[in-house]
Structure formats: C-alpha cells, structure tokens
Amino acid sequence: MRVFKTGLEFARKKDQEDVLNHVRDRFCIKENEIYMDGNSLGLCSKDAKKALYQVVDMWEEHGIGIWDVEDSRYFLYQNVLGEKLAKLINAEPDEVTVMTNTTINIHQGISTFYHPTPDRYKILVDDLNFPTDRYAVDSQVKLKGLDPKDAVKVIPSPDRRLISEDAIIEGMTDDVALILLPSVLYRSAQLLDMERITDEAHKRGIIIGWDLCHSIGAIPHDFKKINPDFAVWCNYKYLSAGPGAIGGFYINKKHFTKEPGLAGWHGNKNETQFQLRHEFDHELNAHGWQTGTQPLFSMAPLEGVLNIYLEAGMESIREKSLDITAYLMYLIEEKLIKYGYSIGNPREDRKRGGHVCLEHEEAYRICKALKQHKVIPDFREPNVIRLAPVALYVSYEDVYKLVHILEEIVVNKEYENFGSERTLVV
Question: Which of 103, 229, 300, 375 could be cross-linked to 370 through a Cys-Cys bond (beta carbons 3.0 to 4.6 Å apart)?
Fold first, then answer.
C-alpha cells in the first residue's frame, strides 16, 4: 500500500529515491517549466536529436548512397526500429514495423482483415475512442458498399467516461467480423483488459485489432499472451519520437501469409524489390505491410529515444508511472476537491493508463491559466484537464508544484482572465 504525504520535503525525498531520476537529464527540459502533456506530444530528448542529426549528416555525406551505407541499415531502418519496438510489447521482432501514421495503419489493418459476408459484416467499436479510429472504420465500411449505421456496431458508454468490458463481450454477436478498440481511453485513461477481450473475440472467430496510442511507452504489454491479430499506435506521445512521428504497426505472425489490404513496393520482398516487377512479391512478415519509401527524418528520433526506454526498462517505467499518478491523485484529493475539481479516471492500478483526468467546470480556462504559470497541460472536451507525469522526465516535485498552482488558479479565480473561445489546437 502506498503512503504519501502532502509536504514539499516528501516530494523531494521521492525524487531522491527514484531509480529513473537520472534519466531526466537526457530530455530537453525548459527551466521553470512543468511539462504535463507527454500523453499528447512527448518532450524532445538529447538522444532523439543526436539520432536525427546523424541521419542528416549521413544524407549530406552520401546522398543517395545513404541507402547502401552500414550494410543497407537505413534502407532497412524499419527492421531496426521494429525490433526495438517489439521489446516494449513482447512481440517477435518480425511482427512489428514502423510506417505512415496511426490512421493509415488502421486502414491497413482493417482492409487486410475485413472481408464482410451477408451473415458476418459488422465492425464493433466503442463510442469513446479517438475520432480518427471511427473515421477510418466508417470509411472502410463504405468502401465495401455498406452503411456504417448498420455495419458499425457501437458499444455505448453509460457515463461518457468508461466502457464496460462485459458490454463489449456481450456485443460480440455472430454478425461481428472485426473489432477495433483502444488499449487506454484517451479521455478517461481507462485501461482495458486486452487479454480477456482478445480471448473472447477469438473464441467467437472474430478478428481484433488494438489502438495502443495511449499506452505504448507507458504500459508494458505482453503480446505473446494477449495474442491480438493486429495493432497500431503513434510514437510521438509517451515515446517522444517527435511531432507527427512515424506510426507503429503489429501483425500477428499467424497472418503473415495474408495479402496486405494496401500493397506498396516497400512491402515487396527485399531480394526482388528492385527487379521492379508489376506482380507484388509479398514479404512474409510485418514489413510486408509497408507501402512507400521510409521517411528517415521521421524515423531517426524514434531510434534515439527507444534507446532510453530500453535502458530504463518498461517495468520500471510502469512502476514509477503508477506511483507518481497515484501521488498526483492523492494531492488532488487532499488539496483540490474542495475547489470543484474531481478525478475522472479509474483509481485501480490495473485499470488505468499513464495520465490523470482532472475534471472541472472551468477546465478550459484553467488550462489557459496553467500555461501562464509555465505548466503545459492538455484539455479535452468537455471538462477534462489531462495531466501526464511521464515517468522518464517528470519529477515528484513537479507534481507537488502543479497541484499548488491548480489550487492558486481557482482560489484567486485567475481563469476569469481568459475567454472560453477554443483555439485551433486545444
């Protein structure tokens, strides 16, 4: 059982005891700034910068020859990064690759596995997932000549915060062909029991894919146990690979012989790729789902920061993440509840991801006020201040100071100095 105290000295003691505290120096942290938005865009690291500049230098030095240097390392860069990413989710190295972005990778997964019949044609989703997942699902359904109102089966949330796992399983009826769900809900930080849900889907002969955008780099998944059919994720949140960094894609090795829904020449076997035939010669691993030429400048920062994650270890990262978010929730309950704040995420370790969902009726204007205090939060409609004390670069003292500022903003009504009109990027 965790025991916390409210004083500053306790926070500083926790930092002294933190086994990951030394890693903080490898990130580009601004002086006097508290960065709590790592679940939306992670901080730049020195390792990521070094890896990026190295590729720029290689391009400058070799031109097109960059594809041949170091035993074609950069031409096969997706193999290098896939092997490193696979360790974070306990998958086989050839089951993981990097390509395009989350949305296109959802399209790739669904177009590969979704082959509706008159009896089995529905895609099951939840109504709290990030909108891009739903846009892709609806789009794929329409491409099959079906109506999303009929072919997309939505499991509703009773409280607009959480999804019932029992309801998901009850929704796995005989007409469901495919399921797409988030591992962690972006708004409420709910962590679904992926192993249980995947097992129940497979018992019914249903293909299931997972969106790991809000868990990869914060939660150690075991895909050898979970055994999903496919998964997608972005690498710019907890994994700090840079704005719009290349996406991640997993496909279970049992499906390697399937034809990719979206084929491209970088999914062709390496040994015949430059024979430039018009017949697709599919690479029988995750890299066979590649499409176009690899964007090296988007990939290089990921390699740099992955080295940090692999050195730190996902188990240690998760342990601190759970502890520091529990500490944040403790301080919220001790100091902020009386000012109209509330916690909108699950409290149990096994049911929550890496961020805390702080709710307040003035959440948007409070976020504006936080930025005036050099605190970087994240707002989500209608009333959520998302706070992500990322284990590798946020300290317990940061959390302590954050809560003090949140209290000050409401007590002094600082939020009243700001309007409610939404900016382009909220």
Answer: 375
